[in-house]
Amino acid sequence: MNPGSDTLRQLPTIALVCDFPEPPVSGNGPPTLLSEHSVRTLFHEMGHAVHSVLGQTPLQSISGTRCSTDFAELPSVLMESFATAPEVLSLYARHWETDKPLSESMMQSMAADRVAHGSIYGAVENEAQILMALVDQAYHALPADGGRRSFDSTDIYHQVFSTHCTLPDPQDGNTRTSWQGFFGHLYGYGATYYSYIFDRAIANKIWHDVFQGGKLSIDRQAGERYKNEVLRWGGGRNGWDCVAGVLGDANPSNANGLLAEGGEEAMREVGRWGLGRDGISS
Predict the structure, then answer these.
(1) Are 70 and 262 in contact (CB under 8 A)?
(2) Of 45, 127, 261, 269, which one is the catalytic site residue?
(3) How far apart are CA 252 and CA 227, in angstroms?
(4) Is the pLDDT of residue 184 over 60?
(5) Is 45 a catalytic residue?
(6) Do the domain assignments include residue 10?
(7) Among candidates 143, 161, 140, 126, which has minimal Cα distance to 278?
(8) Residue 94 — φ and ψ, nearest 5°?
(9) What would the pLDDT profile of 199-232 be if each residue is shown by its tens digit?
């Protein structure tokens, strides 16, 4: 029962359906072992699950991930940072035979590899995500009045690529690529694919300002603050209020209630936070 009422509260039932390789049928040999990328993906999807599990809204229709799309990816993207935080790694990452946790040197090596990867590929991967967001906007900015019978999605894709990408469009006289045909998010995330890079900027800010870059990744107070200001609300609270609440009034980025007001100035402030160099998974 909900306190002070005669209504029942339905606890969420969440399932993560994964497609990781199965261990050998014989039972001999290692179990399913995940790469770091697969672990980050698992944590990403777990972020969505936690968002739903911790929802405390009065209505199911606004619980958990049933919020604005450009806010729904925040918990999942932030959760990726927990996957590789040393304080969290030591809790779950163990050798499948000896059950020993990862050594300090191995965790340092993994961190160094991520820095190296970001230095080499981070900008390219971020640019690719920005390109996809721009293509998505270009397609969905067209009027839906049926008057554009000559619509050519490949033309638009190459126009956006040529205008915004650092490297030249790889056209060698042969048939142009139609990469956008493989871009499944054009449907489920129509006109909102920018959510991934937008929420990554916010997630990085929360990770560094609230969880101190991982030092407070298992700190109860930091976790409760994040839960109470972000996760519990679902779509029952404006996303800007959630971000402003978790960062706090004393945060310079939220001076004079800037973030809670939303609007163009708040968007510019998020833009100043940047994406980091990790690249983006989706």
Answers:
(1) no
(2) 45
(3) 22
(4) yes
(5) yes
(6) yes
(7) 126
(8) -135, 155
(9) 999 999 999 999 999 999 999 999 999 999 999 9
Cβ neighbors of 14 (< 8 A, separation 6 or more) are 49, 52, 53
Specify if 83 maps to a domain: yes
Q: CB neighbours of 157 closer than 8 A, spacing ≥ 6?
A: 135, 178, 179, 180
**Rounded Cα gap, residues 275 and 205, in angstroms:** 9
55 domain residue, yes or no: yes
Q: How many helices (H) and strands (E) does the chain have?
A: 13, 0
Distance, CA of 153 to CA of 179 (rounded, Å): 10
Confidence category of residue 273, pLDDT binned at 50, 70, 90: very high
In contact, 217 and 88? CB cutoff 8 Å: yes
- Cβ count near 257 (within 10 Å): 12
Please state the domain count of the chain. 1
User: Phi and psi at residue 39, in whole multiples of 5°?
Assistant: -65, -40
The C-alpha angle 8, 12, 13, rounded to 5 degrees, equals 130
- The residue ranges of DSSP E strands in the chain, in sequence order, are none
Range of the domain at 46: 1-137+180-282
170 occurs within a structural domain: no
Q: For residue 203, give both structure tokens.
A: 């997630």
The pTM for the full model equals 0.90
Residue 277, SS3 per DSSP:
coil
Whether 89 contacts 107, CB under 8 Å:
yes
Note whether 246 and 206 are within 8 A (CB).
yes
